[in-house]
Structures are given as structure tokens and as C-alpha cells.
Design goal:
Two copies of one chain form a homodimer.
Chain A (H helix, E strand, L loop, with lengths): L7 H12 L6 H11 L5 H13 L4 E3 L6 E3 L6 E5 L5 E4 L3 H11 L5 E14 H7 L1
Parallel strand pairs in A: 3-5
Antiparallel strand pairs in A: 1-2, 3-4
Helix pairs in contact in A: 1-2, 1-3, 2-3
Chain B binds a DNA duplex through helix 1 and helix 3.
Chain lengths: 131, 131
DNA sequence: ATATTATTAGTAATCATTATTAATAAGTAA
DNA sequence: TTACTTATTAATAATGATTACTAATAATAT
């Protein structure tokens, strides 16, 4: 006997993330699913997103006033534009990943499970507008 | 003519950060300064900390449910213990800083001003307790 | 010293998130 | 299929962090 249940709400919310790869907030997800499923509760969205990230099925990103959610669970990092707040995924190549791993092993005071890297600056479009 | 004023409150709050290098939240700072200056307002603490970080005099850290503030403005990164929530400063040596700079220059889609890195795992003490 | 106005204290308002609770429905067993 | 157990949900209240508001205060230019 399994103590979790497969519900329509969980499927809807998970699918929403799969179809909206823009790092939406819980509020964003609620607004999207609300269009097609107007009686889904906001608390359900928060709870399901929270549970999914606990289970490692999605990632919770905490570099903003409200948390954002990412269906991409492969190791990657983020760039945030200071002007338009756009978020761009940053993947490291093999060489960089190796460097990062080596670096993490140089610490004796702690063991590292997760690494979050956020780059901030101006995206291409906003650089143009700045001139 | 300067449109900002040097107030006792600003000095008290800035000094508080200098004397409490534990990455306190705004609430923490309020509680500390409140002991010696009971009529300082919580809104003032929030406003002054926000202004100081805008001016680059302190750093605002956003890896928690509430923002934390750091008087150390030299480039450095952070480790957060998942168990006891302790925060440890992580400084990169010259070699690593150079690697990071090189990496940042490989992007054509954006320019990078700031880089925030948060490592998460277990600190030495909590690793022991885990066994 | 006076005038101007940036800043503050105190508090209300807002925003994001979590807790509560009665109703619902997923999974199990009869 | 039907009944049963209880995880999950909808709706909403409560909480916690932060910001907005406003009259009073005090830093600085004149």
C-alpha cells in the first residue's frame, strides 16, 4: 500500500511546468492552470510544487522575492537580467563541471550536495536599450 | 547640495552589521539594535538596509525565506548547512577567481556584473551528528 | 536662527506562503 | 461493484516578511 495518491491536480501542475519553461512562480502556475481548471486551489498549487521539489522531480529557485520552479532537474545554473528580470539557463560544459567538482572537494569543513549559481547583469536586448 | 542625510539610525544599523558578521536578517538587526536603541523603528531598519545594499555598502543575500545582510563586500560566496542552517563564507583563491572570470567572458548573450554562488550540504558538526 | 525637506517612528497595508478544516475522491479490500 | 479508509483538495483564515503611509522630527543649506 502506497501512502501517496495520483491525483488530477498533481498531473495538471506538473504538466504546466513541462509546458512553461520560464521558471514560473507558484502564482504564475496558479494563473496558468486556473484558465483551464478554474476550481483548482492556490494552496494546492503551492503544496504540490513544494512536494514535487522535495521529491526532486522539479527544482525550486530562490533568487527572487518569490520562489520560482524549474522542470529542468539536470545540473545547470541561471542568469537573471537586472533590467527585464528575464531568466536564462546556463549549462556548464564538461571541463567546467569538472573544475567545479574539484573545487567542491577542496573543502574540509563541509560536504557539498547542491550548488546554486546565479549570474546577474544585462541581457543582450537590455544592453542595446541601455545605449 | 547632497540630497541624503547622515543620521544616527544609519550609523547604528551599519555599525550593527560590522559587529555581527553572522549574516543577520533585517529582523535580527532590529532585535539587536532595539536593545540599545529601543525607539528605532523596524521600518527604518528595513529601509536603511535596503538603501545600503543599493549603494553597494553592504550585500543582500537571498537564499533564505527572509533576506540576509552581509557587511563583507569583497567578492565571496556562501555555504549553507541544510541541517543547522549555519552560513559559512567561501572565498575563492586567485586561480579560481580567474577561472570564474574566464568563464563569465564566454557568454555572448549577456554581460555579467554579479555572481552569487550558494553551496548547500552538511557542515562538519552536522556530519558527525548524522552518524 | 530659520527654513527646507530628507528621514524617522509608528502603524496599516500588502504580498507570499502556510495552516486549518470539512468535503472529496484515490486506492484497497470485501 | 460497493463500501471503507484516509490522502488530498478547495476555500479561506492565519502567519511572516516587507513595503507604504503619514505626521512628527531633525539634518543641512541659507
Amino acid at each position: 500500500m502506497n501512502n501517496t495518491r495520483e491525483t488530477l491536480q498533481k498531473k495538471i501542475i506538473f504538466d504546466c511546468l513541462k509546458n512553461n519553461k520560464v521558471h514560473p512562480t507558484a502564482e504564475d502556475v496558479y494563473n496558468i492552470v486556473h484558465k483551464d481548471y478554474p476550481n483548482i486551489s492556490k494552496a494546492t498549487v503551492y503544496r504540490v510544487l513544494s512536494k514535487l521539489s522535495e521529491n526532486g522531480q522539479i527544482r525550486k529557485l530562490d533568487f527572487d522575492t518569490s520562489s520560482r520552479f524549474d522542470d529542468e532537474i539536470a545540473p545547470h545554473y541561471h542568469f537573471v537580467c537586472k533590467r527585464c528580470n528575464k531568466i536564462i539557463d546556463v549549462f556548464l560544459n564538461e571541463e567546467r563541471l569538472t573544475q567545479l567538482d574539484e573545487f567542491k572537494q577542496t573543502f574540509n569543513d563541509f560536504s557539498i550536495d547542491d550548488t546554486e549559481i546565479v549570474f546577474k547583469g544585462l541581457c543582450k536586448d537590455c544592453q542595446k536599450k541601455e545605449n
